[in-house]
Amino acid sequence: MARQQLQQQRQAAAQRLRRCRPAAQSGVSVEAPPSTPVVPRGGRGPASDSSAPLSVSKVLFSDITLPLYDPQEQRTFDLVVVGSGPSGLAVADRVAAAGFQVLIVDPNPRAPWINNFGVWIDEFAAMGLEDCLDYTWDKALVHLDSSAEGARYLSRPYGRVDRPKLKRRLLERCIASGVMFHQAKAQDVKHGGGRSEVQCDGGVGVSGSLVVDATGHSRKLVEFDKAFNPGYQGAYGITVMCAEPHPFDVATMLFMDWRDDHLDAHPDVKERNARLPTFLYAMPFSSTKVFLEETSLVARPIIPFPELKLRLEKRMQHLGIKAVTVEDEEFCAIPMGGCLPVRPQRVIGVGGTAGMVHPSTGYMVSRVIGAAPLIADAIIDQLSAVSDKATDAHLARAPRSEAEADAMAAAVWRAMWPVQRLRQREFFEFGMEVLLKLDLAETREFFAAFFSLSDYHWHGFLSSRLSFLNLIGFGLSLFARSSNAARLNLLQKGLPGLLVMLSRLATLK
Ligand SMILES: Cc1cc2nc3c(=O)[nH]c(=O)nc-3n(C[C@H](O)[C@H](O)[C@H](O)COP(=O)(O)OP(=O)(O)OC[C@H]3O[C@@H](n4cnc5c(N)ncnc54)[C@H](O)[C@@H]3O)c2cc1C
């Protein structure tokens, strides 16, 4: 491409980026889990007539024509992104919008996203995506226990992501930016001569100067050098149409319901719940339609789905919710915490692949989209740096040796994981290890203190916005607001993890 043309393309892209640049959500949190055990990932089940299981072959957006890459061309792209989830699409779009040649590899880029994503509206608004929510609630509610004092209203608006709309938005942006698609599953990657070749189904290889692994919890291409031992957020959810109005206020999202009186008649289940607690998460869409999810915040090993389903059924009976139809069924198993991929390495990991899930909450979608600009800009910097050195506009983008390509990838990893982010992640891991040890009574005490914190602290913690120093302040405030018994308990249960965190912090660079 002629330099002038490239220049124009970059200027147009820069204007577009200014319009949609997300708010200051920097860095990436990366973690990665290996062999997720027997757990199915999100899906729609056989609960009702119309809910035939979704397969990856299901296609949304039949009106969208993907620009497909013909492997016969044997091009080398500037960037190959493997995976077209939120993180892959967001990174690919931004790099392509800056004028680089980007290829996405995914077996079905138009497949629907099947999980219900809930987000804080302020996070989505900061990224200019508030129109990609299909339901919103002005406030959220937490029930710590069955007492009236146990009800806490959170004045932070919440929303459900309109998945088809968000996916369409990200896909259309990619297409407008010039991203090409190759519909296949990536199997492996090989590096040589300053290029990386992603091996796909059907014996096709696609080449790029840099490769991003955005395969979610499949973690297909990034490498790990340690055994992975994450916690798991497990949840069983259904969207139900009820015969009669359900008991929830349609203006309020039920963020956490830790009440357990629905298990009074089932002492064995109640006892299990007292040891390994789960809570109800509910999104009331109308007076008769609601998404209900029995959720284990984090457990190791994961609480099995039949147990979650049983607990949800008991809740529904207790609340008098009679489902006429079940519109969909969700099985959620999100690995949380655990080791990060090897840093640096040639393949760049983003999103679920690379531990961007909040290790203490399971939240991710705002974070992966919010972090995309930082990652993309680091990639753009590297691709541009090579081009600055060269005389030929096309050759310019290709690293000319393995050492150069390794150094480019390493620079992107460094930008994603500055030491402040690593410290933050250590703190989140520490938080997760504490949560893993709490029974129901202790969990209630913990959240009583948590939701009495300032908005700055609890909003910031849930949105991964607090720096390490702020997190220390957060921890001290939490401690100060806890009862004496809870403090003692936190000290007993948190001390080993605290020591681990301190020793790891000492070696961070
Ligand atoms: C049930 C469930 C509920 C959730 N709820 C929430 C929530 O309420 N709020 C929230 O913030 N987050 C939630 N999450 C997390 C949410 O899924 C992530 O935010 C998001 O999907 C991660 O994005 P990603 O792009 O990293 O990976 P994914 O969305 O998992 O995308 C990975 C992509 O890679 C592709 N892929 C996989 N393997 C290959 C391969 N070998 N070759 C090529 N392509 C491949 C897949 O087809 C897919 O398109 C939930 C997750 C689950 C499972």
TrEMBL record:
Keyword Lipoprotein listed: no
GO biological process per UniProt: carotenoid biosynthetic process
Pfam short name (any one): Lycopene_cycl
Entry keyword Transcription regulation: no
Top EC class for this record: isomerase
Composition bias type Low complexity, residue spans: 1-15
EC code: 5.5.1.19
Keyword entries, A-Z: Carotenoid biosynthesis, NAD
Any one GO molecular-function label of the UniProt entry: intramolecular oxidoreductase activity
Highest rank taxon of the organism: Eukaryota
Positions of region (Disordered): 1-53
Pathways involved: Carotenoid biosynthesis; beta-carotene biosynthesis; Carotenoid biosynthesis; beta-zeacarotene biosynthesis
Family: Belongs to the lycopene cyclase family.
Record-linked PANTHER family: OS02G0190600 PROTEIN, PTHR39757
Name recorded for this polypeptide: lycopene beta-cyclase
Organism field: Micractinium conductrix
